[in-house]
Amino acid sequence: MILNSGHSTKFLNDYRDGKVQKGLGLGIELDDYILFKRKQLNIILGHDNVGKSYWFEWYMLALSTQHDLKWCIWMGENSSGQVMRDLIQMYSGKNYFDLDYKEIRRYEMKIEHWFKFVDNSKLYKPEQLLEIFNSIEVDGCFIDPFTGLDRGMTHADNYNFLNNARQFCNQTNKTIYLSTHPTSESGRTSMIYPAKHPWEGHLKPPLKAHIEGGKPFLNRCDDMIVIHRLVKHEGMKFQTLIDVEKIKDRDTGGKQTELNVPLMFNYNYGLGFTNGGKDAIKRKNGIVNDLVIKPLSSAMSDFDKPIQTELKYVKPDDTPF
């Protein structure tokens, strides 16, 4: 089908007048780099056990509390109960064990307004998940991980899925986030921080080209982020590092992070990440986690120092990932 003449007139005029709509942000530093945009296919890459799913749970919740976005999520490696528990703790701003049963149920009902869970006891083909996503009125969909689906493993199979996923986004106005893992090469000794580096001996974040399945995913996605954590570093294990590797449409907001200068997110004892000392979760009960984070230097020599915090409420809690 050929488009009619004048199909781009509105966009051209809006662009000239500075009226192109930006994506949705959270009022934190992250907004300079990543925004929620409709009709996108976005990729999340990271090593196992660095907290990819957990960080993205927080991101979805923060967007929901600020913009009332709704999600349909398939998480093949986490039970719905575990995810619900984490979301309740973040949204309440309290340690889960400090909540009574009525509070837990009240928060559960609110989160169920925003989140729909796909039963993960069944093994799905990619096209089956897309059918489920299409059957429900939501803004965003999360596949975690892509490697957990019943799928073909060839180059052609990957392109077939990516083309179908992009067509789905274009036709439904929904955004898909796809969680992925890197290849074995990303975990070999060449990817260890070298001697005399502040993070000597720790695993580096994967390069975007390390993604399982290779370049098709980079070629077909809109945005791509890499999530990393130094899981065995005493001073950094509660910091999640975000590198933004691709922003396809910068007119609507966002940009890549600089080389070796990731965005830093403090675990905040499981009450919802903070970025630049700011808590992005909007709570009707007025709870604000009073966390003051010492500013981070971009100099690599400062990265090995523990983050100094003053926390007026919360019990210490280990990371759930």
Describe it for me?
This protein is of the alpha/beta class and 321 residues long. It has one domain: P-loop containing nucleotide triphosphate hydrolases (Rossmann fold, 3-Layer(aba) Sandwich), CATH 3.40.50. 26% of the residues lie in helices and 17% in strands. The chain contains 7 helices and 12 strands. It has helices spanning 9-16, 52-67, 80-92, 101-114, 126-134, 155-172, 215-220; strands at 41-45, 71-75, 115-117, 140-144, 175-180, 223-228, 239-247, 263-266, 274-275, 278-279, 291-293, 309-311. The strands form 2 sheets. The chain has a 10-stranded mixed beta sheet with strand order 3-2-4-5-1-6-7-8-9-10. Strands 11-12 form a two-stranded antiparallel sheet. It is globular. It starts with 8 loop residues before the first helix and ends in a 10-residue tail after the last strand.
The neighbouring-strand order within the major sheet is: 3-2-4-5-1-6-7-8-9-10
Name of the top-level CATH class: Alpha Beta
Percent helix among the residues?
Answer: 25-40%
Give the amount of beta strand, in percent.
Answer: 15-25%
Structural class: alpha/beta
